[in-house]
Amino acid sequence: MEIIQRKGSLVVQTSRYSLHWQAAKGLYVFLNTAGFHQPLLIPSACQPPHKQDYEMKLDRQPRVMHKSASELHLQWSGKSSRWTRKDYVFVCREDVLEYFYILYGKGRIDTLQFFEAAPSASMRKAWGIQSRSRPQVHQRAIRLASPVRFGAVFNPEPNGEDQQLISATQNAKISVNNDPAYCGQNWFFTPGILCFAFGKPAERHWLGAGLVVSPGSYNFSDYEYRGGTGFGLSLRYFGYTKVQGRFESPHLLFTFGSSGAEVVKRYVERLAEHGHVDHRPKRQPGWWRGPIVCGWGEQCYQSDFFNLKGPKDRPEEKSAPMYANQANYEQFVRLLNHRRLPYRILIIDDKWQNERGLPATDLGKWPDLRGFIDRMHRQGKRVLLWWGLFTGEGVPSEMCIVQNGRKLSEDPTNPAFQRKLRRAIRLMLSSGRGCLNADGFKIDFTANIPSGHGCRLHGSIWGIELLKVYLDLIYSTAKQVKRDALIIAHAANPYFASVVDMLRLNDICNARPSVVGKMRFRARMARLANPNWLIDMDNWPCPSLRAWREYMRVQPRYGVPSLYYLTHIDTTGQRIPDAAWKELRTLWNRYLKSVR
After folding, report:
1. Tell me: the pLDDT tens digits for 232-264?
2. Among 206, 336, 399, 591, which has the highest number of CB atoms less than 10 A from its own CB?
3. Is the distance from CB of 269 to CB of 259 less than 8 angstroms?
4. Residue 156's Cα: distance from chain center in Å?
5. What percent of the chain has pLDDT above 90?
6. What is the per-residue pLDDT for 311?
7. CB neighbours of residue 172 within 10 Å
8. Distance between alpha carbon 517 and the CA centroid of its chain, in Å?
9. Neighbours of 127 (CB within 10 A)
10. Beta strands in 534-575 (DSSP E)
11. What is the mean pLDDT of residues 68-92?
């Protein structure tokens, strides 16, 4: 790494990139690679709730704060209307570049931005900035942003419309929540890998911009790319993070490669190499590799979830949870045994319990759930229980997150709720008298985690961190009760590797003729997030019998095979023929030989 300083200019040169600064264009640095010449705005705005942060001052030249053979820190200082001081830092290493900033002052953070800002009148005058130097895009009040020098943006988080590659003029989001207005919803991974990739696809030049966050500090809900003639990145904290004197932003890590997936992979590898995430292999009992049978698809068919028959044939019902009962699951097991399908795991899906918040058996549906589970064990099968989080069902209001006096969900930071939760987990997993002796959980509904302003909870964490704390509470308690308990969730982010054993690809939600492409993409992103994860391939809803058969054939290539149907495809009413069951039996027997 070499640094070249002249009057009015500075260049940092590495084997992978160079970083240029010129006094004549002092608000920007220029990141240059073999395929990019990307300006990056030095100041970044940090908005308090319902207010605007205006930049007032910025150093005219950088300071070299740290220099060694392997690392160089360049820093600019400034101030804004909401913060007494800001230090903007570029960390240059041989193969990667980092950017972060430090806030000084007091206040709450609503939106923390990178590479875009709003200059005050005094700053516009000092720097000769025209009042409308760039168009307002998407109703943004921002006047300064980083000019776009790329054509496309790759988003590794799946969405309902499968728009993983967008124009640089559009917006993109990676979130722990669900936004119904964004690309047909984005609740499939909560969250996905926190790294966007900016590219010139025709030239195979890509630049990754991923977040490096200290463990325990993921107190934001969304990571957003905001496009236009200029671009910026932002994190939504919604006012729950309070600055008292000093606050260091998450770091942005720039990686380089020939495709979007490649730069995302390098980003995750860097996180693991430097201990930001834990990717150490875990003990994986043989039965964890399935195959898996889940009753949800058959519950949906029986309830006519997609209204195929219509009101003349039967009343509109859509009450698939009502079919999670003992009589149905006893019949499911008989069908599986009759077809000699070699499954290892059975998932009892929504809603075997009275309330989802603190699960306990609905005795009306399951008069002898413990007896059912024990009989499955004698057949060599394991049983997982479905569990939907963030519903607040059956949880007293004083143990819940509340917004404007309205109960939103259970509060995983509340000590009283934590005690009740641990007891509920022991009752579900323990082999003791009065307990269910189940073997783990399929965790769902994680995108229902509360969001927005004005919520009240016991602790001070929010966003992604709140989900991590909740899953850690479930995971650690489950392992104390039953060492080989299996925890399945769809938090396909490297930060969750320590609290998830198997990553579920989540609902298919696809009206296209084939589902293979989209599920292959999800499996690839899950594998990038943690190469040691087992992957539950999921199976619902399939758009047709043909699509279902095609997908069942390829599942073993990418993860643990998963079956949700036992008689018919619920979206079309098509009966599954005997030939399909024979083919599936052959596929699963071959799969089991490969994983033994």
Report:
1. 999 999 999 999 999 999 999 999 999 999 999
2. 206
3. no
4. 10
5. 90
6. 65
7. 24
8. 20
9. 15
10. 534-536, 562-563
11. 96
